[in-house]
Amino acid sequence: MSLYTLFIEPWTWGDWMWRGTLVASLVGVVCALLGCFLYLRRLALMSDALAHVALPGLVGAFLLTGSTGPAAMFLGALGSGLLTTGLVEGIRRAGHTRDDAAIGVVFTALFALGVILLTAFASDADLDASCVLFGDVLGVPTHAVWTLGGLTLAVIAAIVALWRPLHLATFDPDTARLLGVPVGALHLGLMGFVSITTVASFQAVGAILVVAALITPAATAHLLTRRLHAMLLVAAGHGALSALLGMYLSVWLNCSTAGAMVCVGALLYFAALLWSRKPRDGGAPP
Amino acid sequence: MSAPALEIRGLSVRYDQAPVLTDVTFTLAPGRITGILGPNGAGKSTLLKAALGLLKPDAGEIRFFGEPRARARGRVVYVPQRSAVDWDFPVTVADVVLMGRYGRLGLLGRPSREDREAAQAAMAQLGILELASRQISELSGGQQQRTFLARALAQGGELILMDEPFVGVDARTEEAIVALLHQLRDAGRTALIVNHDLQTARRYFDDLLLLNRRVFAHGPSAEVFTPEALSACYGGRLAVLSGEDGAAVVLAP
Asked: Which residues of A touch B164 (CB under 8 A)?
């Protein structure tokens, strides 16, 4: 087997290789960018939650509107994402329950509710459970590619425009609040974007693996960088590289693209972990 | 007479129904440095956070410079406890100090040359200019504290609230912080500082506020730092004697 057959020939096999790589890269980049903020806010678990509660959002939107069109799906997922954020925040403020437990209770309950709704009332809907969970990079229709592209641009534009308040609110929310930064609104905005992104990424990589797309690039980039913009760039690069190498791996092994992407991403993470010699103990001694 | 820098009336705070602060009332005259002393769990940090609106009190009225908090926003600076900061965050010293100017920028603004110069000047004053491009995890405790103090300077408020600024810092940084505070005071600024080191309290602070769930004493350091007041505030957890000048000598904090 020559390098040509391994690396070049797949690109001549038709549109799907190009399109699949584009879709996977868009998912990889947009999730990586948002994931950095989740990671730094110690909300990695929230990505898991928002990925799961998209299901009841989708089913709920279908039951309300009778449609599985993109608008209904986005609004459904956005609504359930914001509902989850609100519930978790409410439980957290009421005290008594630890943050991670609050997230765990809320999202599993909503996910289960989605399963009940799906099996009891929406079994005729075109909501393929295995597709929701595992996705299909190669089956993504053209309009969804445009949606993903638009979403990626919107996320980049929002991060660039709100760069300073976002940076401060993520690093030091108390001071941000005192300086008049709308910390709560930024948090809701971020969660809203993550919810929408989760749905947009569904068809490509599925609800479960989108969690990896959100967190692994951020965890990798944090090991390698010293400033936030560098972290975002490295994370986006990690997302895109995982997408490309994942596509190759899935072609060579004839396996799930999403699975291959996530495994490649995790390998890159471990490589970074071994290579990085940055102290990881949270700071030098006094 | 100008309005007090901070006026707190009847402040009560509870965590999970347990009272942390009860009916705390005091005023800070401008141009003085006040130290808050009290045992662990006395509610010292809680008092700062409640005053700043970072946690919600059950009752109480808080005014900065005679105005409600929202209208005094740019005039009040907070330096959080060092342990409350995520030192692993990908951010450099220069980034952190420049953040002190973000309150002036609005949501979409960019720092002007003036903002950058103010940040540079603050770093120079704290002697951390050469550390500007270091990530904050690469700093010593003293350097970390200087970074946050430089951010406060860059912000340029009139009232500065600091939570345990001397914990885990070297002696030189401690002296530098105190010198800077005295300098700010002489320029008319006001400072309220949570501290637990009794040995230095009288030397560092003009006024003292003895706090343990409620205010035990408040006034000029020489008047407040007495064996009676300290024993009352700390309960049995402190061995105090009277020194030659009638001031307290603390044996075992």
From this structure: none
